[in-house]
Amino acid sequence: MSRIQKLAIGSIFVGALVLALKYAAYHLTGSIALYSDALESIINVVTAIAAFMAVRVSAAPADANHPYGHHKVEYFSAVLEGVLIIVAALMILREAYFGLLSPRMLDAPAFGLAVNAAATVVNGFWSWVLIRQGRRLRSPAVTADGRHLLTDVLTSAGVLVGLVLVPGTGWAWLDPILAALVAVNILWSGWGLMKESIGGLMDEALPEATLARVREIISVNAEGAIEAHDLRTRHAGKMTFIDFHLVVPGGMSVTDAHDICDRLERALKGEIEDALITIHVEPDDKAKHAGIVVL
């Protein structure tokens, strides 16, 4: 089992633990804000299961029907997570509305808030693990899961700070107001997540800084060629696809041209892990006198 799959399984168990703690906190206090926190944890468990299924499918080798692999399935998982986040936020807004119409004081606030704080600490640690490892392993599903949990941590912290004021001030209306603010923050997080994932499905190019580095590597390591042009890049899960045209002298042998391509592939893969590189070799009469100049 891969490291990514182990992280995805870990998210399911951590999500279930946090859900149990947050529901207990809601049950102890009757707080709508803590109910919203618990509801988001249900979404965390569902999306963790979806992420695990996605990384399992994405790890499958290429086949006749999917010659480029199954890496993009992770983006579908991230889009699903964004949709579920938005649905949860709308449900929280509904509860906050009714809570604002009939505000009530909290039951056993100290113990309930302590239980919720423990759940927040667990979530905070696990979100840090997922974001760090997801970026290192270049897994959109794991990174998205970590970012979602980080949003949960921040909103939980805000809710806890706000609810501490309710018993002392007697402001029962503060509870549904906090729940509504949690919902708005969750909506923003869900929209950002969906936007980023859809970008991956639409084959967005590499960031400009990475593209500049790719051009530099090609320029420095293509000795013997004339130029490179029509560079195209895209992401699909942890894979990075790079293709370009390489112009060589018309009289160059196939073996020599192939050696240049091998050198370029080694250099690019040394910089970008899990890169799939396609180089189209052309004779000098195809030069466009534009693109990447060979040093």
TrEMBL record:
<feature type="transmembrane region" description="Helical">
    <location>
        <begin position="113"/>
        <end position="131"/>
    </location>
</feature>
<dbReference type="InterPro" id="IPR027470">
    <property type="entry name" value="Cation_efflux_CTD"/>
</dbReference>
<dbReference type="InterPro" id="IPR058533">
    <property type="entry name" value="Cation_efflux_TM"/>
</dbReference>
<dbReference type="GO" id="GO:0005886">
    <property type="term" value="C:plasma membrane"/>
</dbReference>
<dbReference type="GO" id="GO:0006882">
    <property type="term" value="P:intracellular zinc ion homeostasis"/>
</dbReference>
<dbReference type="GO" id="GO:0015086">
    <property type="term" value="F:cadmium ion transmembrane transporter activity"/>
</dbReference>
<dbReference type="Pfam" id="PF01545">
    <property type="entry name" value="Cation_efflux"/>
</dbReference>
<feature type="transmembrane region" description="Helical">
    <location>
        <begin position="7"/>
        <end position="26"/>
    </location>
</feature>
<dbReference type="InterPro" id="IPR027469">
    <property type="entry name" value="Cation_efflux_TMD_sf"/>
</dbReference>
<dbReference type="GO" id="GO:0015093">
    <property type="term" value="F:ferrous iron transmembrane transporter activity"/>
</dbReference>
<dbReference type="InterPro" id="IPR036837">
    <property type="entry name" value="Cation_efflux_CTD_sf"/>
</dbReference>
<feature type="transmembrane region" description="Helical">
    <location>
        <begin position="152"/>
        <end position="171"/>
    </location>
</feature>
<feature type="domain" description="Cation efflux protein cytoplasmic">
    <location>
        <begin position="206"/>
        <end position="283"/>
    </location>
</feature>
<feature type="transmembrane region" description="Helical">
    <location>
        <begin position="32"/>
        <end position="55"/>
    </location>
</feature>
<feature type="domain" description="Cation efflux protein transmembrane">
    <location>
        <begin position="11"/>
        <end position="202"/>
    </location>
</feature>
<keyword id="KW-1133">Transmembrane helix</keyword>
<keyword id="KW-0812">Transmembrane</keyword>
<dbReference type="GO" id="GO:0015341">
    <property type="term" value="F:zinc efflux antiporter activity"/>
</dbReference>
<feature type="transmembrane region" description="Helical">
    <location>
        <begin position="75"/>
        <end position="93"/>
    </location>
</feature>
<dbReference type="InterPro" id="IPR050291">
    <property type="entry name" value="CDF_Transporter"/>
</dbReference>
<keyword id="KW-0813">Transport</keyword>
<keyword id="KW-1003">Cell membrane</keyword>
<keyword id="KW-0472">Membrane</keyword>
<feature type="transmembrane region" description="Helical">
    <location>
        <begin position="177"/>
        <end position="194"/>
    </location>
</feature>
<protein>
    <recommendedName>
        <fullName>Protein p34</fullName>
    </recommendedName>
</protein>
<dbReference type="InterPro" id="IPR002524">
    <property type="entry name" value="Cation_efflux"/>
</dbReference>
<comment type="similarity">
    <text>Belongs to the cation diffusion facilitator (CDF) transporter (TC 2.A.4) family.</text>
</comment>
<dbReference type="Pfam" id="PF16916">
    <property type="entry name" value="ZT_dimer"/>
</dbReference>
